[in-house]
Amino acid sequence: MLAMTLTTFALIRHGQTDWNAQRRLQGSSDIPLNDVGRGQALDAVATLSGYQWDAVVSSPLSRAAETADLIAAGLGLKVARRVPELTERSFGPAEGMQDGPELDALRTPGGFHGAESEDEAAERGLAALAALAEEFPGRRLLVVAHGTLIRVSLSRAIGRTLPSIDNAVLNLAHHHAVDGWHLEYLNGERLTAGQDEGELAAIAGAPSLA
Questions:
Q1: Among 124, 155, 156, 192, which is most exposed with the fewest C-beta within 10 angstroms?
Q2: CA 42 to CA 70: how far, in whole Å?
Q3: Where are the domains of the chain?
C-alpha cells in the first residue's frame, strides 16, 4: 500500500537563459533558453536516466518547456502537458532589471512592489504538485519549472528555508499521502538527516534569478 501512496518528484529548474547570464530578474517574463541552457538540459539526461519516469510535465514558459522537451527526448519520453500553475513567481515591474538603484527602489519586505508574494507563489506551487500527486499516486514524475517557484514550494513543504536552485540539476522529493513531504536531493546532492540551514545553504550555486 505504501508504494501506491508515495509519489516521487524530480523538480528541475530550466537551463540557463541570457537574462540568467546577465543577472536580470526574470520572473514570469517568457525568456528562451540560450545555448548554454540547452547544453545543461542535455547534460541532465545522464543523471535522470538512472531512474524510471512515468510522466514529464513542465511550466508553459518557453525556457522550461524547451528544457522539458530536451530532457524527455533524451529519455525516450514525451512531455505530457504544460501546467500553468508551475509558471515562475511574478516579480512585476522589477522583471528585466539588474541589481542597482532602480531595482532597490522597488524592493519591499520579502519581494518587490507589484510582485506576487513568496507565500502566494509557494501556495500555488505546492497546490500544483499536490494535484499531480493526486493524479499520479505512487508514480515517478519529472517536473520542469523555475528556481524561485521550486525553492519556495519545497521550503514550505518541508518547513525549512532552502537556498537557491541551480539550473538543470536534480532536486528529488517524495510525497506521501499521510506523512507529507521528504526532500532527498537538493541541487544534485543527497541530503542527510539533521542537516541545519547553514549546511543547506552551502549546497547552492549562484543566487537564482528565476
A1: 192
A2: 6
A3: 2-202
CB neighbour list of residue 139: distance below 8 Å, 6 or more residues apart: 7, 8, 54, 55
Grid-cell match 521528504, residue found: 182
Which tens digits make up the pLDDT trace of 120-150?
999 999 999 999 999 999 999 999 999 999 9
Q: What pLDDT score does 195 carry?
A: 53
Angle of CA points 206, 208, 210, to nearest 5°? 150
Burial of 173 (0-12, 13-18, 19+ CB in 10 A): buried
pTM of the model: 0.91
CATH number of 2-202: 3.40.50.1240
User: Rounded distance, CA 207 to CA 9, Å?
Assistant: 23
Whether 88 sits among the annotated catalytic residues: the reply is yes
Instruction: Given the residues 66, 88, 95, 116, select the one marked as catalytic.
Output: 88
Catalytic residue, candidates 14, 95, 116, 146 = 14
